[in-house]
Each structure stands twice: as C-alpha cells, then as structure tokens.
Design brief:
By secondary structure, the protein is mostly helical. About 65% of the residues lie in helices and about 10% in strands. It contains 10 helices and 3 strands. The chain has a 3-stranded antiparallel β-sheet with strand order 1-2-3. The radius of gyration is 18 Å and the shape is globular.
C-alpha cells in the first residue's frame, strides 16, 4: 500500500514541514546534478558511517567532515530518486498534523531528535559497518509514531496493488502505520538481513518508537495534570 493523502486537514500552514521537504529535495538535486562520481563522494562525505562515528576517524578521507556532524547532515541526504520521493511523500501526508500538534519550533526539535534517536539505534546494531547511512526516514518514522498516537482513526487514502490491478482504498491510519512498523520489524530480523538491500530498518524502528513514546508520555502527563486539577 502506498499512501497519497489523508482526510485530516491541518489548522495552520505547515511551514516547517514544507521547509524540510524543500531542503531535502534541494540537497538531493544539488549533489545529484554533480554527476555520479560527485554524488557518491557527497554520500560518503555527508552520510553517517557507523565505524567512523564510534572510532572518531575518517576512512580514506582527510581531513573530511567530522563523523559526529554527519549525525545531522545524513538526515538531509538521500541515495536515489525513490528514496527521497518516498520519504518526502510520507512527511507531506503526516507531518502537517504533527506540526499542528507541537507547534513549529517544537516540531522541528522533535523531528531532529527522532532522527538522532533513529541513527543511534542503527549505530548500535551495525557498529562496525562502513556503509554510509543517509536519509530522512528515521526522523519521518518519528512523525509516523506521533501520528498513530494522535489520529489512529484518521482515514488515509492508499494505492493498493492486488495482483495486476491497482485500486484506491481508505484505511484507518492506525492500521496502515501499524502495518508499516510491523514490516520494519520483520525486515530487520536476521533471516532477512541479507536481502535488506542496505535499508536501515533499525533506524526506522528507533525513530518510530521514540515518536510514539514521546507523544504517549506527553498526553499521559497532560491527562494526569488535568485529573489532579479537577
């Protein structure tokens, strides 16, 4: 299933979401238009390489960007057209409502922290990897985790593929996002790791989990505070 919109209009213009999309797309186009060799060099320079991060070194690069800064630069790099398009599509559909909930500044902070948490989750499970991690998917996964708590019954329009036919259906956001998360967990299992195709599934899991727990705990604190005031 591929989502393309939801029936959950935002109350204000999603300024931060739009800016994040613009920056991600602009960064991808800037480096991609430098040719394949220049693009690959940028991915290795700005991507997060676990071995470099844990050992504080630059593999085959001198002086190069600090491996610790790549914790953030990697969030704005993507490996291909489908990679950036998929991440930005999910951010566009679900980010506006989450930005409504947090407010612009707090939403941006939430987005970055989810991206960092996602990166550290992948760093933990692939500590010695020399493959660069790039993409906004960890941060976007945090947005999905928040959305499933806040609007599980919101209807999401998706393209559904049934054998050779394509149709559109509306499904609850809770169902679609829970299915998405389950697929990330199943894809991260050792039996499927060999065919993962370089996808950082643990980053998706970490980002989603933080977004989910962050909003759940926040809503619980508000409920406790309201009960106490009553």
């Amino acid at each position: 299933m591929i989502p393309y919109k939801d029936d959950n209009p935002s109350r204000s213009f999603p300024l931060v979401t739009v800016l994040l999309i613009v920056v991600n797309v602009a960064a991808f186009l800037f480096f991609r238009l430098q040719g394949l060799r220049g693009f690959e060099a940028a991915v290795f320079e700005l991507g997060l390489i676990p071995h470099e991060f844990w050992h504080g070194v630059n593999l085959d690069r001198s002086p190069g960007l600090s491996p610790y800064l790549t914790l953030f630069t990697s969030m704005f790099m993507h490996g291909g057209w489908l990679h950036v398009a998929g991440n930005m599509l999910y951010l566009w559909i679900f980010g506006d409502n989450v930005e409504d909930y947090f407010g612009h500044f707090r939403y941006f902070f939430f987005y970055l922290i989810c991206g960092v948490a996602a990166a550290f989750t992948q760093l933990f499970f692939a500590a010695e990897s020399t493959v660069p991690m790039v993409g906004a998917s960890g941060a976007v996964a945090g947005v999905l985790g928040a959305y499933i708590v806040l609007w599980p019954r919101a209807r999401v329009h998706v393209l559904a593929f049934v054998f050779f036919f394509v149709t559109t259906i509306r499904v609850p956001a809770g169902f679609m996002l829970a299915l998405w998360f389950l697929l990330q967990v199943l894809s991260s299992l050792p039996s499927r790791a060999a065919s993962a195709g370089g996808v950082a599934y643990f980053a998706h899991i970490g980002g989603f989990a933080l977004g989910y727990l962050w909003v759940r705990s926040q809503r619980r604190r508000r409920k406790i505070r309201a009960t106490w005031l009553d």
